[in-house]
Amino acid sequence: MTSAKKTGILLLGLGLILVLAVTPGCQKKAAAPQAGAETQKALSVYEGTVKTAFGKYLYLPTAQGFDIVLQGFDAAALVGKNIRVKGELLLDKPSIFRADSVEEKSSSGAYTNIYTRSQEPALSDLIDVATRETYKILTLTGVNNTEDWENKGKAKVFGKIKEDGAAAYILVTDEKGKDIGKIVVDQMSEFSKYYLKKLRLFDTFWFYLNVKNTVDQRDRVKTKELFHADVQLVGLF
């Protein structure tokens, strides 16, 4: 066999090895989009036991990081029930998963449809992160220092919620834990009420407020009620 033929056979063999080595890699790359598509599809369905719900909002531990909204449905009726939710994450509100359908799982393992979305969710009570930053922190120092809160408009305060019958208050303390006073809650958004239930393991929160009228001086001194406010959002930051 001539040296030219030997060289040709050697080059052919090397080429075959390269083809065999490259082919599996190409196959893996081609398969990647399919795996991604399957993952994306899986993310549109959540199953589990409802732990917390209020109004149209509910929380499933299997959907961590998301709050699921069922427009036009009392989600509180589902607490403790095993459900399957199909829907999609809202791109303009990335923490909200819109439920398109909900099925309840029976003891036998069969699913029954109990909710089908008929309208888009109303989410006017949500406040995005950029808007939160426009709320200035209230530094409250005492019942007679009305300048601490008057004419502040939208502001936030750190405190605890306390309910007394039909009334609700935000209790505010100083850095040493000494009581400063309490804010009278006139209204609280649906999402805020839901979030208080969801964060039941915590007792202190940031309250995003619409500051309203000051309590009369005589009543302020007697009750330590500082002013009235509407709670627009509750959170840990």
Q: Which descriptor suits the 3D outline?
A: elongated
Number of helices: 4
CATH topology-level fold name of the largest domain? OB fold (Dihydrolipoamide Acetyltransferase, E2P)
Q: Could you list the spans in which at least 5 consecutive residues all have pLDDT below 50?
A: 2-42
Radius of gyration: 29 Å
Q: The biggest beta sheet, please? A: 7 strands, mixed
For the record, the CATH class of the largest domain is: Mainly Beta
Total number of β-strand segments? 13
- Count of distinct structural domains: 2
Strand-pairing-aware structural class: alpha+beta
CATH architecture of the largest domain: Beta Barrel
Question: What is the beta-strand fraction?
Answer: 35-45%
Q: Overall mean pLDDT score?
A: 85
Helix percent band: 25-40%
Instruction: State the end-to-end CA separation.
Output: 81 Å
Q: Topology as H/E string?
A: HEEEEEEEHEEEEHEHE
What's the quick description here?
This protein is an alpha+beta fold.
Overview of this structure, please?
The chain is of the alpha+beta class and 237 residues long. It has four helices and 13 strands. Strand 2 and strand 3 (57-59) form a beta hairpin.
